[in-house]
Amino acid sequence: MSFNTLKLLQKQKTNILEIWMKNQLSDEGLREDLISNEDLREQSGELVAALITNLSNDDLEDMDGDSWNSVIEILGGIAITRARQGFSPRETGRFVFSLKEAILEVLQNGITDPQQLFLESMKINRVMDNLSVVTFETFIKGREEVILRQTDEITEISTPVIRVWDGILALPIIGTLDSSRTQIVMENLLQEIVETGSSIAILDISGVPAVDSLVAQHLIKTVSATRLMGAECIISGIRPEIAQTVVHLGIDLSNIITKASLASALAHAFKILRLEVKKAGSINKTNNF
Questions:
Q1: Locate the STAS domain: which residues (predicted)?
Q2: Residue 211's domain spans which residues?
Q3: Which pTM does this prediction carry?
Q4: Do 94 and 48 share a structural domain?
Q5: Of 60, 89, 142, 170, which has the fewest beta carbons less than 10 angstroms from its beta carbon?
Q6: Coil, helix or strand for 174?
């Protein structure tokens, strides 16, 4: 980039920021619910200052060079923050492209020679296009981190181990049971058995949409691990269609106690523990005899 152009951009740095802010604030899609005007101005000002300083580098296209680290670091931080705040890729892209429009507007007003204006505009286009690619790459990484974190949280929430009675645990499973989730179910259940000293665990699969051979294998592994801990495991929530599927697939669950509902599984657990639950009226009636 020529010395005169650099001098023009540095002199018009404040003007570039104001044009850029005007463009962003006039955008009907501006998400004022996600970022305040003060924070937007602070982000924009920091990026403009770093970018104008870096335009003096000889190589304007090599974004992997150390000279661009400061700009990429600022832009990457903005992209990650926007991904976590809930901005869409389109909204983040408009943020960068509107800066290019502001710089090109300043060049058009400050350079009178058409040939020089064309050459300098092309350089700015290449720089901003490369920075846009960096922005999208970083934004996608940030969004993937958000999705992975939410997936872990949902998985953790969807596999609660409930202490339904002294010595009896229940683990209602909702959704598809895959290998990774089976591992979490198994770890949570075994840890709770150790902490509570429970001897019976009920796996309720009423919320599992379908049972195939793979899901059955996961359940059998969980039951086997529970038994190694000295506890008996009951699988409840066996609906008629699931029972037919298990029989059709030839899956052997004969060594596992299965029940149609959580209530019947709990009743069977009481029977194993030799517990008898009666209505208060029944007890009084018994005492009257």
A1: 158-269
A2: 162-273
A3: 0.57
A4: yes
A5: 89
A6: strand
How many folded domains does the chain comprise?
A: 2
Shared-domain flag, residues 32 and 151: yes
Of the residues 129, 156, 183, the one at which a domain ends: 156
Q: Tens place of pLDDT for every residue, the chain, 289 residues?
A: 677 788 888 888 899 999 999 888 887 777 777 888 888 898 899 988 888 887 776 566 666 667 778 888 888 888 888 888 888 888 888 888 889 999 999 999 988 889 989 988 998 888 888 888 888 888 888 888 888 888 777 776 767 889 999 999 999 988 777 777 778 888 888 999 999 999 999 999 888 877 777 878 888 888 889 999 899 999 998 888 888 888 888 877 788 899 989 999 999 999 999 988 887 765 555 444 4
**Among 233, 180, 241, CA closest to 208:** 241
Same domain, 137 and 209: no
> Partners of 171 in the beta sheet?
203
Residue 170: closest CA among 258, 234, 253, 243: 234
The SS3 call for residue 168 is: strand
